[in-house]
Amino acid sequence: MIDAQQFIAASTQRVLAFAAHPDDLDFGAAGTIAALSAAGVEAQYCIMTDGDAGGFDERDPQETARLRHEEQRVAAARVGVQQVHFMGERDGYLEASHEVMAKVVRLIRQVRPTIVMAMHPERNWDRIQRSHPDHLACGEAVTRAIYPAVENPFAYPQLLQEESLEAYKVPWLWLYGAPKERENGFINITDFFGQKMDALRAHFTQHPDVAAMENFVAQQCKLNAQRGQLPEGSLAEAFHLVAVNADDTIAGF
């Protein structure tokens, strides 16, 4: 198990967190983002689809997308995030295509984060709702973009030639929504759980039963803390932490 808490204290300068839909990050990582923000770390979000197929009320998809953009901006601000990028892909149609990966590479090279967060690219059979096809595509696109494209100056050469975006080696990839057997890092968010819940409540179009949602999230965070062997009464978020460029990393291995 990796000591994920150390990153909160000292090792992180900037975080770029990707999600398939508005509210995905608030379920999976908002407590950690709040802790990082409180420690002075800059965090930015990238929402890959507009969320236009989500919700329970009958409304025009364009209006749904507009509302969900606003919900995500409000939710992000509640955990200290001021910059939210919207990639504009269609909800339910996200693919790890070269068009999408080029957008991911562009943004990572612009932001140059210490940690990239994304949804996990492997299907979670214990709770298949975590494995919406857009979630898997988010994880696959970001993972494939990080290695090798972001750090390869010959990948998507227009980014260097036309936009002067130089190759960049991402130190860490943190994947959320992972199958339990992949999770190797647990962040204690006990002091930031209230902010996480406030962020989730901002997504009013998505929660027909707010109390049930809150109870579910609290139980999941409690179980995460137990699996991470954190002190009794703690609440935690769980990640699959991947060292992309560590001290012993060499090209291609």
From TrEMBL:
<protein>
    <submittedName>
        <fullName>GlcNAc-PI de-N-acetylase</fullName>
    </submittedName>
</protein>
<dbReference type="GO" id="GO:0016137">
    <property type="term" value="P:glycoside metabolic process"/>
</dbReference>
<keyword id="KW-0862">Zinc</keyword>
<dbReference type="Pfam" id="PF02585">
    <property type="entry name" value="PIG-L"/>
</dbReference>
<dbReference type="GO" id="GO:0016811">
    <property type="term" value="F:hydrolase activity, acting on carbon-nitrogen (but not peptide) bonds, in linear amides"/>
</dbReference>
<dbReference type="InterPro" id="IPR024078">
    <property type="entry name" value="LmbE-like_dom_sf"/>
</dbReference>
<dbReference type="InterPro" id="IPR003737">
    <property type="entry name" value="GlcNAc_PI_deacetylase-related"/>
</dbReference>
